[in-house]
User: Fold this.
Amino acid sequence: MWKSTTIIDLTSHLNFFRLIERDIKLEKGVLSSRDKRHSLTINTRLIEPFQAKINCLYQVIGEVDVSRDQQEVIMTVRTAVCVEGTDLIAYEKALQFQREYLYTR
Assistant:
């Protein structure tokens, strides 16, 4: 299960995950970090029908729910964008530029 404090503390970070499992009937999936050291269970009920592609890279935005005993973390996904084949360095730079512009407005 996911042990990153960036998720549990609900801080904002840009992350990309690989979809490694998908259960259409249960409206759930599992994302893996690019280094494959962490995984995150996702609830996809808000974005169904989700045209998921296993082993593709996704950027997801949603709410994270942590169980009372801190043993289970599930993200309810509000948006998922397949970024497979995207130049991620250029993408991250563009997002940073946009944030800086919006901050100055």
Remarks:
- DSSP finds two helices and five strands in the chain.
